[in-house]
Each structure stands twice: as structure tokens, then as C-alpha cells.
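Write out the 3D structure for:
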Amino acid sequence: MKRLFTLIAILVFAFTTNLSAQEVGISKKEQKATKRMLEAQKDSIAGVMAKNAIESGEWIFNAISINVSGGAMMNVPSNLNFLMVQGDQFTFQTSTGFGGGPNNMGGITTTGLIKIEAVDVDRHGNISYSLRLNGTLLNATATLNLQRNSNMGDLYLNMDRGARNISMTGAVYSLGSSQVFEGTLR
């Protein structure tokens, strides 16, 4: 452990003084190990922040890709495609960003009531939240699966009536740390 802290201190010193890691005497293997450790700590912090945001009832899931009922996975702008929760209220939006559609952004924007029905943690530490969404344009059972020690995850919307099911991949953030552009409600 002491060696690890020494390596981190040397790397910080090297980056602040514009020295290369080779000049300081750190091998490529040690550099990669330190980088992996720092990434794991960063992911762990993001995971704890996401879990706390969900438990406080003030969070947003920003989607980076969407799949509608078995179609092709489509990359989307994360600030236009989201599920936002504020207490017992939600706002759900999908958008292509090209205009048109009911929300003037190429998709839909709807609001309603949300209820967390169940929380489950599997043996690997992945967390699954079962949510009930009841809104003006959307009545669905949603499942939010977060990866262990990360804010990255998947959101599955199982629609109640006729509409196609949606799966989204993205990340969970607290409300203050993510900015979104909300379309018009209809």
C-alpha cells in the first residue's frame, strides 16, 4: 500500500512539473496499474453518488443510446433523451434533436407520477430498481439496472398499452450535475 501511495505521489509530481514518467523511473506496467486504480476509484465515487441520488429521489438518467422493440440501437444526444425524477414526479423525454414531433424536438416529452416498487442487489453488487411510471403519455413499468460501483446502467420501459417497449443505455446523475433541454409538453 505504501508503494502505491508513493507511485501516485510520483505521478502527481511528474505531471505538475511536466516530467515524463520514464524520466522519474516508473515502468509502463506501473503506470497502467495506477491508471486502472484511479479509474476504478472514479467509477466507485460515481456509483455512490448515483445510488445516493436515487435514494434521495432527485436524479436523472441520461441516455446515450436507445433501442425500441428489438430495432437497431441508435446513439442519441444525452441532454435530450432522459428520465428525470424529482420526488414522486417524473419527466420522460425522447428526441432526435431535429425538430418536429409532439415536443418540437423530434420526440415526446411527458410527465407523471413515479413510485419505486423494489430494489434488488445481485451477488455481484449490481443494483436493480423497479419503478412504476404513470403519466399523461406514458404508463409503464421501468427497470433501472446500475452496474456495480458505477453510475452507468440500462433503463428498460415495459409499456402497459400497445406502445413499443424501450431500452436505453446511459448514466445516472444527481439533478444538479446534469443539464438537459426539455421540449414542450403536450
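The longest helix spans residues 28-56.
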